[in-house]
Specification:
The protein has 52 residues and is α+β, with helices and mostly antiparallel strands. It has one domain. The chain has 1 helix and 4 strands. Strands 1, 2, 3 and 4 form a 4-stranded antiparallel beta sheet that branches. The longest helix has 9 residues.
Length: 52
């Protein structure tokens, strides 16, 4: 199973924020929509959680 993280831009922070947990690839889109609904959040993306 492939796992992913969510990254986003948060007002007031100089660097992108990253989820502390991983999500299954199939569940991630629902969490992206939830994150997009938060005030001050933009550019929400799904990225691989696999070590490079």
């Amino acid at each position: 199973m492939e796992f992913v993280k969510i990254i986003w831009v948060q007002d007031g922070f100089a660097e992108r924020r990253e989820s502390a947990v991983t999500y299954s690839k199939s569940a991630a889109p629902a969490y992206v929509e939830r994150k997009k609904a938060e005030k001050g959040v933009s550019d929400v993306q799904i990225v691989s959680a696999d070590p490079e």
